[in-house]
């Protein structure tokens, strides 16, 4: 086993959720009960459950994510901060301050509110997460 | 918290798999090998993302399997440092608050990374870490407990890697000796664990900071 590239690409929770959903659906369709794939079954089940119940990932579409990332370009956030905004969907200013480094210096209160409005626009609250 | 790691490995397929459609046999072999396991300094491997390249297959004398080198990308769980995550409190003890993400349980928030001042309480039957939040009011500080089952927001501050031996076994015991003592704590530590912090405004239990 050789690691060619430790971090080829970073994924949003939504993309991982979609992958796990696909794995679960294909296994159900085939009716597979391969005991050698026990580890995959355990991980798929627990990770899918976590993402479905505790994150907004299931309701996030890739078009919404792309549109959101385009809209927040004006704030000059780093990739890591943008990723966390998508994964965590903050609903209050204090959550934005936690995600964005030095938020007081980089964003005004109006900009923080604009960010929250964009989050609410593209990822409306389904109230079973956050 | 998830990333794609590009890996390269030799996959051996048994003859009964030769008739499988497309790359299904390779996908299954890679998932069997890696899923839900920790690769040292890479992270917790979750599931196969895609296969980039399969080199030509070789058959070796005395072995009916076909061996090919496969280059593929795997979804790996490895939160970056300073990343904020939301998890559930699994248990509280004197080591700190243990947090679980369902599929990954080895997250600890040590006592010095809790909100100040916090203290450990075991008086009500359920062990808990309690944050004494001083509002400046005359009634004294609010007591805010962190108990099992509470959802909380925390920041990842450190990742710990331990290279574990296969099987986790000690040296083999000889006949007539006492059975080997149980594995000591050091041998039972997980290969990949995270240290977290809630010592910041906005971190800690979700209820503490919600607008309700």
TrEMBL record, chain A:
Swiss-Prot/TrEMBL GO biological process terms: transcription initiation at RNA polymerase III promoter
InterPro entries documented for this protein: HRDC-like_sf, RNA_pol_Rpb4/RPC9_core, Rpb4/RPC9, Rpb4/RPC9_sf, RPC9
GO cellular component terms listed in the entry, alphabetical order: RNA polymerase III complex
Keyword Cytoplasm listed: no
Keywords attached to this entry: DNA-directed RNA polymerase, Nucleus, Transcription
Source species, domain of life: Eukaryota
Keyword Nucleotide-binding: no
Assembly behavior: Component of the RNA polymerase III complex consisting of 17 subunits: a ten-subunit horseshoe-shaped catalytic core composed of POLR3A/RPC1, POLR3B/RPC2, POLR1C/RPAC1, POLR1D/RPAC2, POLR3K/RPC10, POLR2E/RPABC1, POLR2F/RPABC2, POLR2H/RPABC3, POLR2K/RPABC4 and POLR2L/RPABC5; a mobile stalk composed of two subunits POLR3H/RPC8 and CRCP/RPC9, protruding from the core and functioning primarily in transcription initiation; and additional subunits homologous to general transcription factors of the RNA polymerase II machinery, POLR3C/RPC3-POLR3F/RPC6-POLR3G/RPC7 heterotrimer required for transcription initiation and POLR3D/RPC4-POLR3E/RPC5 heterodimer involved in both transcription initiation and termination.
Protein name per Swiss-Prot or TrEMBL: DNA-directed RNA polymerase III subunit RPC9
Organism: Macrostomum lignano
UniProtKB/TrEMBL annotation, chain B:
Keyword DNA-binding: no
Xref: InterPro entries: NA-bd_OB-fold, RNA_pol_III_Rbc25, RNA_pol_Rpb7-like_N_sf, Rpb7-like, Rpb7-like_N
Protein origin, superkingdom: Eukaryota
Domain (RNA polymerase Rpb7-like N-terminal) ranges: 8-63
Subcellular compartments: Nucleus
Alphabetized UniProt keyword annotations: DNA-directed RNA polymerase, Nucleus, Transcription
Family listed: Belongs to the eukaryotic RPB7/RPC8 RNA polymerase subunit family.
PANTHER family: DNA-DIRECTED RNA POLYMERASE II, III (PTHR12709), DNA-DIRECTED RNA POLYMERASE III SUBUNIT RPC8 (PTHR12709:SF1)
Name of the protein this chain belongs to: RNA_pol_Rbc25 domain-containing protein
Source lineage: Eukaryota, Metazoa, Spiralia, Lophotrochozoa, Platyhelminthes
């Amino acid at each position: 086993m050789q690691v060619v590239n430790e971090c080829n690409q970073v994924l949003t929770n939504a993309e991982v959720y979609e992958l796990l959903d696909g794995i679960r659906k294909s296994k159900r369709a085939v009716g597979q009960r391969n005991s050698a794939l026990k580890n995959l079954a355990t991980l798929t089940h627990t990770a899918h459950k976590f993402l479905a119940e505790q994150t907004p990932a299931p309701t996030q579409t890739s078009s919404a994510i792309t549109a959101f990332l385009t809209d927040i370009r004006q704030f000059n956030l780093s990739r890591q901060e943008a990723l966390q905004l998508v994964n965590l969907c903050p609903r209050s200013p204090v959550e934005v301050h936690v995600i964005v480094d030095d938020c007081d210096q980089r964003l005004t209160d109006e900009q923080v509110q604009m960010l929250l409005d964009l989050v609410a626009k593209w990822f409306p609250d389904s109230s079973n997460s956050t | 918290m998830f990333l794609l790691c590009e890996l390269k490995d030799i996959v051996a397929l048994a003859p009964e798999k030769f008739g499988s459609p497309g790359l299904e046999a390779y996908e299954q072999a890679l998932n069997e090998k890696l899923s839900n396991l920790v690769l040292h300094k890479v992270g917790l491997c979750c599931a196969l993302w895609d296969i980039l390249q399969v080199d030509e297959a070789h058959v070796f004398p005395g072995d009916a399997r076909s061996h090919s080198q496969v280059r593929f990308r795997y979804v790996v769980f490895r939160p970056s440092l300073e990343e904020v995550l939301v998890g559930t409190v699994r248990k509280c003890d004197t080591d700190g608050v243990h947090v679980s993400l369902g599929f990954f349980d080895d997250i600890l928030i040590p006592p010095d990374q809790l909100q100040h001042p916090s203290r450990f309480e075991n008086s009500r039957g359920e062990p808990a870490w309690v944050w004494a939040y001083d509002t400046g009011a005359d009634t004294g500080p609010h007591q805010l407990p962190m108990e099992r089952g509470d959802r909380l927001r925390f920041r990842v501050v450190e990742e710990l890697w331990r290279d574990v031996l296969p099987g986790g076994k000690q040296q083999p015991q000889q006949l007539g000796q006492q059975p080997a003592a149980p594995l000591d704590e050091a041998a039972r530590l997980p290969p990949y664990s995270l240290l977290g912090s809630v010592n910041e405004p906005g971190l800690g239990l979700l209820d503490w900071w919600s607008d309700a």
